[in-house]
Amino acid sequence: MNALEEKYKYYEKIKEAIHYVDENFSYQPKLDEIASHIGLSKHHFSRIFKEYVGVTPMQFLQATTISHAKEHLKTSKSILDTSYDLGLSSPSRLHELFINFVGVTPNEYKKMGINLDITYGFANTPFGKAMIANTAKGICALEFYDENADQVLLRLKKTWSNAEFIHDDIKAHVLINEIFQENKKVNLFVKGTNFQINVWKALLNIPKGELSTYSDIATILDKPKAVRAVASAIGSNHIGFLIPCHRVISKTAAMGGYRWGIPRKRLLISYEHNFKNN
Fold first, then answer.
1. Which of 6, 69, 222, 271 could form a disulfide with 253 if both were Cys (CB 3.0 to 4.6 A apart)?
2. Residues catalogued as catalytic
3. Distance between CA atoms of residues 173 and 24, nearest Å
4. Can you list the pairs that 142-148 forms with residues at least 24 positions away whose Cβ atoms lie under 8 Å?
5. 179-218, pLDDT tens digit by residue?
6. What's the CA gap between 9 and 263, in Å, rounded?
7. Strand duo 248-249 + 186-190: pairing
């Protein structure tokens, strides 16, 4: 079993624990209570949780509190401003994973994928099961799922309704390993309106381990009243993790919505926060 499969093996247990913490953090549950809830001894639970997330369950509980998130947000807008001032929105310098970001041309958008081959497949990631889809120009979808594999595939086929689809789980496994284990350079091929693409580019400038708000993104785009439109554009993102919509929360420090589930969003945030501090 490789490192990726080892992490995936415990994902459901860790997700269940995070959901429990998310629902009960206001009264600060004890370690043995969380462990008992997911059916593990507290020592085993503590060990696998730290191996997976990088922090102890109690450190994660502390990081989950709203007061912690509010403190985290104090620097978010200035970090985002600095990123733009430094010109980090240029394709060659986006994101820690060295992402090249390519949007469809207006003609490609109109054709909905005519003469486009899309290879898709299903694989396990450290954050649960995922479908990944790739074209000659780059990855066009990375969607997490729990039991709804048919739904994410249907969404892919609806987005690119005229494309030719090729099912290849082996290729999917290779791509997932390159993203989550090898940190290889990644090309993204996105389909959206100009506004959506500008929002997604803005997300790529939020450094790993940092958070921003919907209103901050709107302000950066010089559309301070377009907070709802920004939230809608973020919600329409089809490329999870690589376009880090999980790094955006509300002004109140609430997690807000997340297409792939709030527990997964909390896990991603905690994982990246720990990565930054180690």
1. 69
2. 245
3. 36
4. 142/179, 142/238, 142/239, 142/240, 142/241, 142/242, 143/238, 143/240, 143/259, 143/260, 144/240, 144/260, 144/261, 144/264, 145/260, 146/261
5. 988 878 889 999 888 899 889 988 988 888 888 889 989 9
6. 17
7. unpaired
